[in-house]
Design brief:
With 391 residues, the chain is mainly alpha-helical. The chain has helices at 23-47, 54-76, 81-102, 107-147, 158-252, 260-288, 300-310, 312-317, 337-353, and strands spanning 296-299, 321-326, 332-335, 359-370, 376-388. A three-stranded mixed sheet has the order 2-4-5. A two-stranded antiparallel sheet has the order 1-3. Helix 1 packs antiparallel against helix 5, helix 2 packs antiparallel against helix 3 and helix 5 packs antiparallel against helix 6 (260-288).
Length: 391
């Protein structure tokens, strides 16, 4: 026999969506790779005859090769990738300035790097960000110059001049291509949004048209129910009236009264049918917002006796017992007798329908309503039906 702990409730897997990468992160990534690659070539053309320490070559190689990928990795995983990319551009500005300082403040290198970084900072972050980038570039130039003892070498070999011009041209070309690609993507997104907006507008028009048709159909249905209710009530009133006349004539004559129970059943059935028709008319009035309440004093005992009599068959059909209770001194309530009777009849009928061999409590009592200070301000009648199921 194997035994073990009962399995616990299933644990739902939680899927955490990765933060969305801002478009400037993707835009700057290839530009950064090209810019630092040509920055390294420019440094190589200048430093070949200076033989700097091996540690500097290693540091420059790691920075030039690894930094673009590290910057993209960090920015793409930040919650605010645009803000992270702006910080990356500050690092780029500092590194480009340090390249110029290491190269002895070569004017071709300094101008090329300043033009590249300033265009990036302006296009991505605006004039304030470009100013901060200029400060970072100057700080990098001072740091790079300090690493080389602030040696100034304004003369440029021909190779350096050609590389500088090529670097600026390629940088601007790569930057332009990236901007063009992003602009194309933005245009596609804008067109997709326009198409989606047109679809939404068309759907809104269809929904509005469907709503108008539904309102027209609902008004037609309400008018039909109202007309049919009036048309059906007219012959029923005649049936009830003639039944009462026949009862009076039988009571005034000496003939046997054997037909009186049949007339009573006819009259009761006609009134039940009339009540159903009135309910249908009430539903139509409720939908059209034309319900009017007719307030008057209603005798509580008479009302409850009438409700108990009308639901007696339904109560007894399921073997239930009806216990009716009225608070002493409670004679009348100010209400709409028709609506109050409908509400109480429905409650009691539901209780009788869904209870078997149980006790149905039908009671009426006063309930005092108090204000914020706890003083009674009004006295109301509260009638309710409760069911007590037998064991």
């Amino acid at each position: 026999m194997m035994s073990g702990a009962s399995p616990g409730p299933p644990v739902e897997a939680v899927h955490v969506s990765a933060p969305s990468v801002h478009r400037i992160v993707r835009l700057d990534y290839p530009v950064r790779i090209g810019a630092h690659l040509f920055g390294g070539l420019l440094l190589l053309s200048v430093l070949l005859d200076r033989a700097p320490a091996t540690s500097m070559w290693v540091a420059l190689a790691v920075t030039i090769v690894a930094w673009p990928h590290v910057a993209y990795w960090v920015a793409s995983r930040c919650a605010n990738s645009k803000k992270a990319e702006l910080r990356n551009l500050m690092v780029d500005s500092f590194l480009m300035g340090s390249y110029g300082g290491i190269a002895g403040y070569n004017p071709w290198i300094m101008v090329g790097m300043y033009a590249a970084m300033n265009s990036s900072n302006l296009s991505v972050g605006g004039s304030r960000h470009a100013l901060r980038g200029l400060i970072a570039l100057i700080a990098g130039a001072l740091a790079g110059g300090a690493a080389m003892g602030f040696e100034v070498r304004p003369d440029s070999p021909l190779v350096t001049t050609l590389l500088s011009a090529t670097a600026v041209a390629l940088y601007l070309t790569i930057f332009g291509i990236s901007v063009h690609v992003e602009a194309g993507r933005a245009a596609k997104v804008r067109l997709a949004l326009q198409d989606r907006n047109r679809e939404i507008e068309a759907q809104a028009v269809r929904l509005d048209e469907a709503r108008r048709h539904a309102e027209v159909a609902n008004r037609a249905k309400s008018a039909f129910l109202a007309n049919m209710s009036h048309e059906l009530r007219t012959p029923l009133h005649a049936v009830i009236g003639y039944t009462e006349l026949l009862e009076e004539e039988l009571l005034d004559t000496a003939v046997p009264k054997t037909a009186l129970p049949d007339l009573a059943r006819i009259k009761s059935s006609a009134r039940d049918l009339l009540r159903l028709i009135n309910d249908v008319l009430d539903l139509s009035n409720i939908e059209s917002g034309k319900v009017e309440l007719h307030w008057e004093d209603v005798a509580v005992r008479e009302l409850m006796d009438a409700i108990a009599a009308s639901t007696r068959k339904l109560v007894l059909a399921n073997g239930n017992v009806l216990a009716m209770e009225i608070q002493p001194g409670l004679d009348a309530v100010y209400a709409d007798p028709t609506r109050l009777r409908q509400v109480l009849s429905n409650i009691l009928s539901n209780a009788a329908k869904f209870t078997t061999s149980g006790k149905l409590g039908f009671s009426a009592r006063r309930q005092a309503t108090v204000d914020a200070t706890g003083l009674p301000v009004e006295t109301k009648l509260s009638s309710r039906s409760r069911t007590v199921a037998s064991a």
